[in-house]
Hints:
Blueprint: H1 3-27, E1 32-36, H2 48-57, E2 64-68, E3 74-76, H3 85-94, E4 99-102, E5 108-111, H4 116-136, E6 139-142, E7 148-149, E8 155-156, E9 160-164, H5 165-169, H6 173-176, E10 187-191, H7 198-210, E11 215-220, E12 225-230, E13 233-239, E14 242-244, E15 253-255, H8 256-265
Parallel strand pairs: 10-11
Antiparallel strand pairs: 1-2, 3-5, 4-5, 6-9, 7-8, 9-10, 11-12, 12-13, 14-15
Helix pairs in contact: 1-2, 1-3, 4-8
Amino acid sequence: MTTDSRAARSRVLSASISRRVRKRDLQRRTRFVSVRRPEKAPPTRLDHRTERIWGQSGLHGPADVRAEDSAMALELRLPEPALTEEMLLALSRENPGYCFERSTDGKLVVSAPTGFFSSADEGELFKQVAIWTDSSGLGEAYPATAGMTLPDTSIKSPDATYVTNETLAALTPEDYRPVFIHIVPDVVFELVSPSDDLSDVEKKIDAFIANGVRVGVMLDPNSQTVTIFRPNTERKTYATGLVEIGLEMPGFVLDAAMVFRRSKRRGLQ
């Protein structure tokens, strides 16, 4: 497939997904949307240029959409060829505000923009991690917009990420070449938003741990708790307050109460 045809496919795919995501945001009752390749040919309402692009991309017209359950994330099954890093980046650029991730089995996971208050909680979380990394000099902090490719080929964007200087120094030129850096961060943070299914967030952190992440931290404003995930160790849950992460971030103390203060103010407990 040529560069032009790849770009054309990304544009058409982006427009199609964007329409479905916006419709979902208005209805706010779709949890997973499975997109299957239709059996029929492209409808006649498409112009010749659009039909040609659909054909080049392997997509054969508007997808058959089936809604299940009720939440905010969209998980889309796409036809071959597989979703590439370049396509995911193009979707992100053409649909600012939405979070695009790739699952291990190649599905596209689309999340709506973070809510007004949740975004402030997310900002407070990143601020605390960033201030500590700047003062300690032990590594670097990255916000929710930082995407990364994990060893299982999934592409994820934690709400906040900590990477040690040693991990950064061990990266090879090959790790930097892809669109999304190939890296296993040391610590990831996930903040449960009002639209998240708690079990989905837990599975996401479990996947990080399975890929080699040393610590996963889940903050849940609903229960006002912080849960620490580690490899081959039972999860530990702490009530809101000051939570030490441990040797992976020596001296760092997470002030969960500060992260949750806006959630508490609006009654999400």
